[in-house]
Amino acid sequence: MANESRPCPCDIGDRFDYGGRGQEVQVEHIKAYVCKPPASTDRAVIVIHDIFGWQLPNTRYMADMLAANGYIAICPDFFVGQEAWKPSNDWATFDDWLKTRNAGKIDKEVDVTLKYLSEQCGAKKIGVIGFCWGGAAVQHLMLKNPHLKTGVSLYGVIRFFESRSSLLHPTFFIFAEKDDHIPLEQVTLLEQKLKQNCKVDYKVKIYPGQTHGFVHRKREDISPQDKPYIEEGRKDMINWLNQYL
After folding, report:
1. DSSP single-letter state for residue 234
2. pLDDT-derived band at 1, boundaries 50, 70, 90
3. 212 an active-site residue?
4. What are the tens digits of pLDDT across the range 126-152?
5. Is 0.70 surpassed by the pTM of this model?
6. Which position among 11, 50, 77, 179 bears the catalytic label?
7. Is 179 known to be catalytic?
8. Domains of the chain (ranges plus CATH)?
9. Beta bridge mates, 26
10. Which of 8, 10, 35, 132 is catalytic?
């Protein structure tokens, strides 16, 4: 990896050797990965990828997991054709790379995705989940987009709660205790703001001993001590969606 002395915290974990059960489609100006459940449903989940982009096998694995639990799952390319981050990239260049990929400027892509889900898939109840960069995007959407029913933000950098914290929809925040990217004092501050201002249901949960990306970037079979928390995080995510969709 480039810049070994200060690796990107999002590089922690494993890339799954996984092909995916869904298919790639064109949704207006963006490409997307879609996986549908065996039985027809009007419930759908938009999956917002991390910095490694919409083609990361780990993220497609999570989309397929949602489909296996009865949801239409779609993971659009929110970088809109721009290159995803690569583990071989120099972490020192990350800030410049990020400037052209703003997690708060995805509204156009979300709108065309919502239209696709409604018109092409028959979806009536739509939620959103996101990992890392995508987790921050979920926070943005939960503060702004009236058309979504609920959201799960997984280790999203807490950037959209400095001036606002009145969520529009029930939101579940998943954090890792040993996340070098998101200090626990930030999580505490987030909880305080939500407690003061939030009128809808929310939950903030910190998973003991876990690092950034643990829900989708770790494999249960090679980290046995983490397996219960990986499974718990995934189960909690599904249960939250089941409750509000």
Report:
1. H
2. very low
3. yes
4. 999 999 999 999 999 999 999 999 999
5. yes
6. 179
7. yes
8. 23-244 (3.40.50.1820)
9. 31
10. 132
